Amino acid sequence: MNDRPANHPAPVEPPFADIDSATRRLMQALDALERAVERRREADRDEDELATRIQALGADRSRLADELDISLVKSRKLERTSREIAEKLDYAIDTIREVLGNAAKAAQNGEDHSDHSELVAALAEDVDDDEEEDEEE
Fold this sequence. Notes:
Layout: H1 16-109, H2 115-136
Helix pairs in contact: 1-2
């Protein structure tokens, strides 16, 4: 038989061991969550840092591409100028050879070669005109 009255429930003692265990699991879960949040923050900082680096690399690439384009334009201009100068030098050398050849022939024949000085003066004038054009460019 039962000593307790039928209409009063039995006093229930709280299961302290279960509460302590649940509290420990909750604290462990909160610690794990806190560590996960911190890892996520670090990952976000790393991603932001990586994005900043990528942006800087993109800016450097653009700057270098612009510098390369400018260098290519300058290089082509120098090549063109070099060809023009080489052509002018070839012309000048040919003219000087012609003048010297004519002067040598005239000297052999005992002729007056004063007309050659006019040719040399014209050549010098052409060279001066070419220098002025180059300075304008």
